[in-house]
């Protein structure tokens, strides 16, 4: 990245010319706005609404273009790629930036000074292998050709700071890993460290990520990516890409995330990439909005109970509850309940014969009417039948009243019929009450028979029913009840009040279960999803999906599905990737690092808690001196995190550490960066310049503890310090000499 770059001055000149032209375009847009304003005025005077609409639209379109171009002037582009389409002679330079900059009249490509990173041609910049590249327009037209050069720029405040060339024709690299390590702009960006919010990556999107961002809209795209592979980042960039290219309505897009801290963490990225005001929700809130109930959630104890490992029977039951209520099998239970209700309802039907047999509606006819549209929600079917019977009865009376008014019916006849009708209507529907969601849900667990379809599975159904009834009787529900309740509300009342979406992004998808996805599927207009996750980080695996096949082959079996894997870890330096690869759950594919820092993680034994606190404080000082802006002190259990936080505060003051210490708890709604003490379960999705792992002795070698340790270690970008008391976890013992340096 040398300022002496041989073409530096030519590029500086190009930048100056581009900026001058951008200013010129802005001036032209302003004067066109004036012209449009006058024409709009005239059109309104002549009541020419079509012209008025066009001028008004052009005016507002110009205003937003002015806004975009002015924002881009300090750094109009970050890349250039020289491309020669097959069959043509000349290489053409395409400049790529955060927004498109084009002259007012576009005759050909040269009138586009800068292409938007989401434009089709930008793919040539992001994906060129061995001097060849191709891109697709409108999913139909393919263009292929040679790439002679890819150039990256750092431009700040209109000044060209540096240039990096990647002469792809000369650098046909055999291994992708080397290619990544060979991207100095990426390494530079990754070495900048963590911030308190997720950032955009438009200047350094990698080929494998670009492919995912540009996947077609109408499909379910499932992405399995190792820790730090950019899943969250890509999912959000994909939204921006879809908005730009598919012209979606931004109110019809939604991001589902695991918790509010994570939503806060990603909140600034969306506006940065022109995808602001997109709805973001955690699953619990979404379920509450669907059911239109303020559901009181019982405190989730499963994870802590399982980790404590003492009450084996209790753990088994909680696991069974989660598995059953999260499975598609449970839908059969809901349908069986509904079937039972329908049957019971049919018994209430009787032949109706009124007004001396002039109105007769047999039980059969009522039943047929009720069963006419089986997809209609139960309560709606009920209301439809009530409306039908009421209409038949009252219509007869009204006709009679009209006849009587004309003297064509005997006096008093209409009155007698009206009385008969009123009496009947009051009585007949007495026991036809609509089903209430929570009462119905309780009834399901009170009725053994509806569990018939799952009886031969291994569940202890009586215990599950008893447990659920106790929770419901305490006027609470558990997280596992949210999806069944949401689905049941669909079956009972329908979701006329629930918005449908054109694209749904689900992050940390490994934490959701099949039934939760079945609910999400019903929210989709077009089966368009981006689902990102990492099964190795499935710390709630007792309740969530255990394989992506559950989604691909079961929940979305009838949709077009695409599965992609990312193995490169962009977050953590090689030295840290080496450590978390050691504890990765068995059978998972190892992460591939893309940069290194030349400093191994450190490991220390603490003799007591007080000693551990001293060691945390001194390591904090080291990390802060190294320039770490965000440091995570990760503790296995939530309660222990709160306790450690309390003890660290006075020690930090004594040591003269002035940075505030934040405790990140389950109730927290925002993430503030700096120094944070937090449990592993809440660290998921976040990242820190440096991580101090508190007591690595606590992680046993079972699958759940492996996942927890994997999550904790993989939060670190550049610095990692592992403390343990007693015996170091078996998961790390073999790697002490190879992966760790002795503590400073
Ligand atoms: N192409 C890239 N250029 C620069 N930075 C990148 C790139 N891809 C990912 N990153 C960075 O890597 C880090 C990890 O990204 P992100 O949090 O999106 O990964 P993730 O796969 O969702 O992680 P996890 O599953 O571990 O929570 C972020 O700091 C992100 O900015």
Automatic annotation (TrEMBL):
<dbReference type="InterPro" id="IPR027417">
    <property type="entry name" value="P-loop_NTPase"/>
</dbReference>
<keyword id="KW-0547">Nucleotide-binding</keyword>
<dbReference type="GO" id="GO:0003677">
    <property type="term" value="F:DNA binding"/>
</dbReference>
<dbReference type="InterPro" id="IPR014016">
    <property type="entry name" value="UvrD-like_ATP-bd"/>
</dbReference>
<dbReference type="InterPro" id="IPR027785">
    <property type="entry name" value="UvrD-like_helicase_C"/>
</dbReference>
<dbReference type="GO" id="GO:0005524">
    <property type="term" value="F:ATP binding"/>
</dbReference>
<dbReference type="InterPro" id="IPR000212">
    <property type="entry name" value="DNA_helicase_UvrD/REP"/>
</dbReference>
<dbReference type="Pfam" id="PF00580">
    <property type="entry name" value="UvrD-helicase"/>
</dbReference>
<feature type="domain" description="UvrD-like helicase ATP-binding">
    <location>
        <begin position="204"/>
        <end position="573"/>
    </location>
</feature>
<keyword id="KW-0378">Hydrolase</keyword>
<feature type="binding site">
    <location>
        <begin position="225"/>
        <end position="232"/>
    </location>
    <ligand>
        <name>ATP</name>
    </ligand>
</feature>
<dbReference type="GO" id="GO:0043138">
    <property type="term" value="F:3'-5' DNA helicase activity"/>
</dbReference>
<keyword id="KW-0067">ATP-binding</keyword>
<dbReference type="GO" id="GO:0000725">
    <property type="term" value="P:recombinational repair"/>
</dbReference>
<dbReference type="GO" id="GO:0016787">
    <property type="term" value="F:hydrolase activity"/>
</dbReference>
<dbReference type="GO" id="GO:0005829">
    <property type="term" value="C:cytosol"/>
</dbReference>
<keyword id="KW-0347">Helicase</keyword>
<dbReference type="Pfam" id="PF13538">
    <property type="entry name" value="UvrD_C_2"/>
</dbReference>
<protein>
    <submittedName>
        <fullName>DNA helicase-2 / ATP-dependent DNA helicase PcrA</fullName>
    </submittedName>
</protein>
């Amino acid at each position: 990245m040398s300022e002496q770059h041989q073409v530096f001055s030519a590029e500086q000149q190009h930048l100056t010319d581009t900026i001058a032209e951008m200013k010129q375009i802005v001036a032209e847009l302003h004067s066109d706005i004036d012209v449009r304003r006058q024409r709009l005025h005239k059109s309104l005077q002549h009541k020419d609404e079509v012209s008025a609409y066009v001028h008004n639209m052009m005016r507002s379109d110009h205003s937003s273009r002015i806004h975009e171009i002015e924002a881009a002037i300090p750094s109009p582009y970050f890349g250039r790629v020289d491309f020669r389409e097959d069959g043509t002679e000349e290489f053409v330079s395409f400049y790529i930036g955060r927004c498109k900059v084009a002259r007012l009249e576009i005759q050909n490509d040269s009138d586009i000074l800068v292409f938007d990173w989401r434009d089709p041609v930008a793919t040539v910049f992001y994906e060129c292998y061995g001097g060849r590249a191709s891109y697709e327009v409108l999913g139909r037209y393919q263009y292929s050709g040679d790439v002679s050069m890819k150039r990256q720029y750092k431009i700040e405040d209109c000044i060209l700071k540096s240039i990096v060339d990647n002469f792809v024709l000369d650098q046909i690299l055999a291994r992708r890993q080397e290619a990544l390590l060979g991207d100095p702009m990426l390494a530079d960006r990754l070495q900048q460290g963590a911030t308190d919010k997720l950032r955009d990556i438009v200047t350094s999107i990698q080929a494998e990520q670009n492919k995912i961002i540009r996947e077609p809209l109408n499909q379910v795209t499932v992405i399995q990516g190792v820790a730090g592979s950019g899943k969250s980042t890509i999912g959000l960039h994909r939204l921006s890409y879809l908005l730009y290219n598919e012209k979606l309505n931004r109110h019809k897009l939604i991001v589902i995330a695991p918790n509010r801290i994570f939503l806060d963490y990603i909140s600034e990225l969306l506006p940065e990439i022109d995808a602001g005001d997109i709805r973001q929700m955690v699953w619990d809130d979404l379920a509450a909005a669907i059911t239109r109930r303020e559901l009181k959630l019982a405190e989730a104890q499963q994870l802590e109970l399982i980790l404590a490992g003492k009450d084996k029977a209790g753990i088994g039951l909680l696991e069974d509850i989660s598995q059953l209520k999260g499975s598609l099998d449970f839908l059969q239970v809901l349908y069986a309940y509904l079937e039972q209700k329908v049957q019971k309802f049919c018994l209430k039907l009787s032949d109706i014969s009124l007004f001396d047999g002039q109105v007769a509606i047999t039980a059969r006819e009522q039943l047929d009417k009720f069963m006419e549209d089986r997809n209609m929600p139960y309560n709606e079917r009920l209301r439809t039948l009530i409306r039908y019977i009421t209409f038949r009865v009252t219509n007869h009376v009204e006709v009679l009243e009209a006849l009587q008014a004309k003297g064509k019916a005997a006096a008093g006849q209409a009155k007698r019929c009206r009385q008969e009708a009123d009496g009947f209507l009051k009585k007949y529907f007495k026991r036809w009450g609509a089903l209430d969601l929570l009462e119905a849900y309780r009834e399901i667990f009170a009725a053994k028979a509806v569990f018939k379809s799952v009886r031969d599975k291994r569940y202890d159904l009586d215990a599950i029913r008893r447990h659920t009834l106790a929770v419901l009787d305490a006027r609470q529900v558990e997280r596992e009840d949210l999806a069944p309740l949401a689905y049941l509300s669909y079956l009972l009342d329908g979701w006329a009040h629930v918005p449908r979406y054109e694209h749904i992004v689900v992050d940390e998808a490994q934490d959701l279960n099949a039934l939760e996805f079945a609910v999400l599927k019903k929210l989709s207009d077009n089966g368009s999803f981006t689902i990102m996750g990492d099964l190795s980080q499935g710390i709630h695996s007792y309740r969530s999906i255990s394989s992506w096949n559950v989604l691909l082959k079961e929940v979305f079996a009838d949709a077009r599905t695409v599965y992609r894997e990312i193995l490169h870890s962009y977050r953590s330096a090689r030295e840290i990737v080496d450590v978390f690869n050691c504890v990765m759950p068995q059978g998972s594919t190892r992460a591939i690092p893309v940069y290194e820092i030349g400093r191994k993680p450190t490991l220390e034994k603490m003799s007591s808690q007080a000693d551990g606190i001293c060691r945390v404080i001194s390591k904090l000082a080291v990390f802060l001196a190294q320039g770490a802006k965000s440091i995570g002190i990760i503790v296995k259990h939530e309660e222990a995190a709160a306790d450690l936080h309390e003890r660290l505060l006075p020690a930090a003051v004594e040591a003269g550490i002035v940075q505030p210490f934040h405790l990140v708890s389950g109730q927290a709604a925002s993430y503030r960066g700096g120094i944070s003490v937090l449990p592993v379960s809440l660290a998921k999705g976040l990242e820190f310049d440096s991580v101090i792992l508190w007591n690595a002795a606590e992680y046993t070698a079972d699958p759940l503890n492996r996942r927890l340790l994997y999550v904790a270690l993989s939060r670190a970008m550049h610095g990692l310090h592992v403390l343990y008391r007693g015996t170091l976890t078996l998961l790390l013992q073999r790697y002490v000499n190879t992966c760790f340096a002795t503590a400073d």
